[in-house]
Design goal:
With 124 residues, the chain is mainly α. 73% of the residues lie in helices and 0% in strands. The protein contains four helices and no strands. The protein is elongated. Mean pLDDT is 80; it is low at 15-21.
């Protein structure tokens, strides 16, 4: 039983050490940082565009374009560049993207709930 416990503990320590090792490749770190900066810029631009959207079709097309551009941005960088970002960079991107999603949802909800025809405009 002790051997099994020691095996599990040693596996956990080894996997933690490997997972927490620093990335010392400066070129890769530059790519990670550039991807982060460009992602934040893209997210910020689309947040501003979404805020100014006047109807649901505009919100939908903007969000679709946002998803496409974000995917294309990630494809311009080497594979798994986004996986090697720092924890704070990942947290920032998650927070910003979550904000964009909430913004889109709240805009769609508010735009759909607005009446498009006033009751006084009906013909009797």
């Amino acid at each position: 039983m002790k051997i099994l416990l020691y095996s599990i503990l040693s596996a956990l320590v080894i996997s933690t050490a490997v997972g927490c090792s620093k990335n010392d490749n400066p070129k890769q770190r530059d790519s990670q940082r550039e991807l982060f900066i460009q992602s934040v810029d893209l997210i910020s631009r689309y947040q501003k565009r979404l805020i100014n959207a006047k109807d649901t079709s505009t919100v939908d097309s903007l969000y679709s374009n946002f998803e496409t551009e974000l995917t294309e941005l990630n494809m311009r960088f080497p594979a798994q560049t986004d996986f090697n970002m720092t924890e704070s960079e990942n947290d920032t991107l998650i927070t910003l993207i979550t904000h964009v999603n909430h913004l889109r949802d709240s805009l769609l909800k508010s735009l759909v709930s607005k009446p498009t025809i006033s009751p006084t405009d009906t013909i009797e």
